[in-house]
Automatic annotation (TrEMBL), chains A, B:
Residues 8-163 form the S-Me-THD N-terminal domain. It comes from the Bacteria. InterPro entries: S-Me-THD-like_C, S-Me-THD_C_sf, S-Me-THD_N, S-Me-THD_N_sf. This is DUF917 domain-containing protein. It comes from Quadrisphaera setariae. Residues 166-347 form the S-Me-THD-like C-terminal domain.
Length: 358, 358
């Protein structure tokens, strides 16, 4: 895939929502924003991570905030490019490439919209290989790229440029500003050169999203789309179930909560739960932990295979929980400290898929 | 007064704490910071507001946050100058003068420390003629000076540059960042040229503070220092009383609460209250309102005349409440809308001293 046009947007939206593991934003909104920008400015050129020159100036762009709010507060075209503009002006550098910080229905496609608006190529990569709720939770933190200076802009014209002593402080200050801006804001951060991008990003995320999305295309998806997705991602369908309750609260700028599932098949009669904070983080069978972050826990509609984001989860959904292995760098002690269950305040040890080649 | 040396620092600290109406920070801390900077860099030249050239580049500097926290978290010398440095770099301008945004024990003297650190003259003026809790509450808002771009820096090395659509949004975003930084931060905002400063600042505030401070010098203050201060400020001693209770909470970044006073003299046997939010805002005799912001409500120690800041207020203090007229621009409908009792959520109409020449 060398460019992103309207067809690719549809496929990426579908697939990135799977990789977003419940977070990363509503794919319908991401697709609307990217399609509008492509209709105005034409398709976006995609640069493979390996082809990025050392001296490239790469600026990721994303939406920050609670997905529950994002679905009601869609950014304007102007706002999409402005975060990059503000950061570029602050850095005094000429940006050469836009990038994705995470995979997700909105956050894989906001960068497409921004790249189209700004007339720049987009890097086929992302900072996580999935979505995570907090902004320090990227592989770039492990490879020493600073989150700041970072720009936070809202739809009203307010902006902040934040510069912090570490990436956790960037999360803290940017989160508060985002909450003030109405729980949803556009950000640009982790400015880096091409060499740093090649070291710290996950290659091929947009292509992967598009290929997952292709599996789920209406007419292509077979009887059991979840199994097809699981096989494609090297994972497995851990659970088939029905959603029977969703406890949900939007606090400290996140969509937090727990979904309660009634198991089917091998889990028939079992009470399963999924704890989420924007993303699905811990999957349990009663007290027994089946899977945790940083592995991917994707809730797919059992019939269509469509990813269900945490803000869409509701009673009656028939879901298949696909568990897929995360990028191997997340499985190191440093990676687990940054994005394992303890990083989210859960008492559990990380439970990761076994037999995954590193 | 053409310069601020160590003697002037002591007098300003004493007098600015009176003008701070309970807020603006602890004068002891302000004096420590200014004296340390003057000992290292020498006295600070004071520029009368009227002598400021049109093309001057004036940057106010202040501490933002809850005074209850400031007394335990004194900024470093490095932090004092850094807010101005960050804003200067962002603006790409060469700053010619430092200024005070409000009168108060810390916020009249932090600019002295900053001016000494930066080797710049200080303007003999301030933005309010008193202290107020929120950053849009300056006469500059009425004369059309933007609060942003503004810099917020902490002692750890974190900073944010905020740019907002109006001055109220600047308060909102900067307050959240300040809370994250530990409820106390150094700020620089309201960058303006000399002409705008002459239009929007209150002239002579530092000289006035020094002259009030001189009245209160040990050995100079007579039997009734509060009456001497009231006469000097064109006000009156409204109440003599003893503090019998202080209800206090540090919420949303402010020191809020109510002091309960037991009246003496003409108010003997009466229960008086002072509502505060960093500053003293409403003085009541039972349900009867005696005085409100924007007029100055200064609680002075009856014996020494020393101003008592809201965070120092405690059971047993014998106090004299001096009410003094605010700058006449605060008495306009626009001024009252910005800083009258309703602006702080109190249900009362403004009650202002009568017979004050405008």
């Amino acid at each position: 895939m060398r460019q992103v046009g309207l067809d690719e947007v549809r496929a990426i939206a579908r697939g990135a929502a799977v990789l977003g593991t419940g977070g990363g934003g509503d794919p319908h909104i991401g697709a609307l924003m990217a399609a509008a920008a492509i209709r105005t400015h034409g398709p976006v050129a995609l640069t493979p991570l390996a082809e990025l020159p050392d001296g490239a100036v790469v600026l990721p762009v994303a939406m920050m905030g609670a997905p529950t709010v994002m679905v009601e507060k869609i950014p304007s075209a102007d706002q999409v490019g402005r975060a990059v503009d503000v950061l570029t002006r602050h850095l005094g550098l000429e940006v050469t490439h836009v990038a994705c910080i995470e995979a997700g229905g909105v956050n894989s496609l906001v960068p497409v919209a921004a790249a189209a608006e700004l007339g720049l190529p987009l890097v086929d990569a992302d900072g996580m290989g999935r979505a995570f709720p907090e902004l320090q939770q990227v592989l770039l933190t492990l490879t020493g790229v600073r989150a700041t200076p970072m720009a936070v802009v809202d739809e009203k014209g307010n902006c902040a440029v934040i510069d912090t002593v570490d990436n956790r402080w960037a999360e803290r200050l940017a989160r508060s500003v985002t909450i003030d801006m109405g729980c949803s804001a556009m950000i640009s951060n982790y400015a880096m050169d091409g060499a740093a991008a090649r070291r710290g990003l996950v290659p091929g995320t947009l292509s992967l999203a598009a290929s997952v999305g292709a599996l789920l295309e209406p007419g292509v998806a077979g009887e059991d789309p979840a199994s097809a997705v699981a096989a494609h991602l090297g994972g497995r369908v851990a659970v088939r179930a029905k959603v029977v309750d969703v406890e949900r609260r939007t606090t400290t700028g996140f969509a937090r909560g727990t979904a309660v599932l009634e198991g089917a098949g091998e889990h028939a009669g079992r009470r399963l739960t999924v704890d989420f904070q924007n993303e699905n983080l811990v999957l349990r069978d009663g007290d027994h932990v089946l899977a945790t972050a940083p592995d991917l826990i994707c809730l797919l509609d059992t019939a269509s295979g469509a990813a269900i984001t945490t803000e869409q989860l509701r009673f009656g959904h028939r879901v298949s929980a696909v568990v897929a292995p995360c990028d191997p760098r997340w499985r190191t002690p440093e990676g687990l400290a940054l994005a394992g269950p303890a990083a989210f305040g859960y008492p559990d040890d990380a439970v990761l898929l076994e037999g995954v080649p590193a």
